[in-house]
């Protein structure tokens, strides 16, 4: 049995950061990974999806300004777009990231890791051999999530696309049906439509992005419509079948229609990758999320040895939040190893705070939408004394100069009792870049009477902040 201070199961962004930080604090660390170091984000999610989306966004931006519009006369080149994506992902080659672990002083063990009791992990290699690891200080679960398939008859027999196939496909499907109305569904509909596919969204709900402010879903709906995407609200797929000869797929829906397409993308949510993690060996239910405290310690297990970082704990399933949690978790483990208390609650520098009510989100559709903190509804449900203000970003001088047809929307949610911003939603070009200002204001709990003195440069789209504060009455 090999012994390390910290054993990390999962080598995605969360696992890399927590292991690297632990090693940097003088602790021995090992990462167990069955697939590619770098995880879903690097090869089959965030990075390739943005690589697919960016060329269409650049083309649209050039065409939004008179004088530049006339020079853009051709469609995107799919082969070059896909090749550029592959340069970012290396087609799954994790050599660079494995080398980074080695340079950080972290051992990499290839294989499938499972808990085997307190502080123990068993790793099954590709050849079936089993290696035993023991953690002196902590085991950290960073296994992330996997796609959840909707209950559609035949879906498991047609070679359905999930985010993995949608971000790594080597050719543009002629016709794509997307089941879902969330972030992955909207982004992939945007990307593949920009590359020439005919795209239809089947959305069970009556709106897109239902956990966002309504304006976000409304603007993305308009944008997808302008791109030529067909959206069918209130419609669910019942059954699918692939023709053995033509390889086309027929999708039957609950409104009595049938769609014929080349591929079906299921994008209806994700579930934790904990079904084969050995949770039963430490008294935890198999397949569940792993609830944690503000140091990422799993609260249902006695002691301070088991931690869960990133998507697997269900707090904020986003890569940037996984890395944020990993930094906090590694610091807490190091403090405990040094015999110092590392109690959660926001008072310690390593305790997680942004994960509660200041999570930034970005969707790279056209238009872009981004948010930080709470929606108005969530703030009211939390019992806050809420006042919300809205402003059309189109009316900002900097926005009009940025694009001739700039269209955007901004909404601010204010806690009246404290006089601070607790939520912000932006839509339109540059929204994903502008949102960090809101994140800083929310995390810093900047009083509005101070925030009014943060003067945006003229003429920039950031002037929307001045207009929002004026709308509030400052």
Task: Please tell me about this protein's structure.
The chain is α/β, with parallel strands linked by helices. It has 3 domains: 2-38 and 94-146 and 271-354, FAD/NAD(P)-binding domain, CATH 3.50.50.60; 155-268, FAD/NAD(P)-binding domain; 367-472, Enolase-like, domain 1. Helices cover 32% and strands 24% of the residues. The protein is built from 15 helices and 21 strands. It has helices at residues 13-24, 39-44, 46-63, 78-89, 95-103, 163-168, 183-194, 214-227, 319-337, 354-357, 376-381, 397-402, 431-443, 448-451, 464-472; strands spanning 2-9, 29-33, 106-110, 112-115, 120-124, 130-141, 145-147, 175-179, 198-203, 230-233, 237-242, 249-253, 258-261, 263-266, 270-272, 306-308, 360-363, 369-373, 386-392, 409-415, 420-427. The strands form 5 sheets. Strands 1, 2, 3, 4, 5, 6 and 16 form a 7-stranded mixed β-sheet that branches. It has a 5-stranded antiparallel β-sheet with strand order 17-18-21-20-19, with helices on both faces. α1 runs parallel beside α9 and α3 (46-63) packs across α7. The longest helix has 19 residues, at 319-337. The model has no long low-confidence stretch (mean pLDDT 96). It holds the Pfam family Pyr_redox_dim.
